[in-house]
Design a protein that fits this description.
Elements (H helix, E strand, L loop, with lengths): L1 E2 L1 H8 L3 H9 L4 E3 H10 L3 H13 L3 E3 L3 H18 L3 H12 L4 E3 L2 H4 L7 E3 L3
Parallel strand pairs: 1-4, 2-3, 4-5
Length: 125
């Protein structure tokens, strides 16, 4: 399963439900976009180190971008940016899930619900 950025942010804030969801899954993936978003949101190098240590300890696999992911994401932006507010980041994360035959778990239902090929699992706080 691919975990969206919001799930990992909920864990950082102490949300036990989000942590339990990650703990329950043995195959943990994130997109390189999520990895970059997490590092970008850190306030300093120490927080970046904590994030990297957590991802390593929990055995997350960071999935890279590919030409197919980029192409698919550009189609999603064209189709859904105006109607559903999907951003380039969300389109890349959704495309990563689809291209890697993985489900995506996120609390961001609004942006992802329109993508028919996406196996989406909604997280509710």
């Amino acid at each position: 399963m691919i975990f969206d950025t919001d799930i990992l942010i909920w864990i950082q804030r102490g949300n036990e439900k989000a942590a339990a969801m990650v703990d329950a899954d043995t195959d943990r993936f994130i997109s390189i976009i999520t990895y970059m978003e997490l590092l970008q949101k850190a306030n300093n190098r120490e927080q970046q180190a904590v994030i990297k240590d957590y991802l390593t300890q929990m055995d997350f696999t960071v999935l890279p971008l590919s030409e197919n992911i980029g192409h698919r994401a550009s189609i999603y932006v064209e189709e859904y940016a105006l109607s559903h507010g999907i951003s380039a980041d969300d389109a890349l994360i959704a495309a990563t899930a689809i291209e890697n035959n993985q489900s995506l778990v996120s609390g961001n239902n609004k942006h992802y619900k329109a993508i028919k090929d996406l196996h989406f699992k909604r997280f509710q706080v």
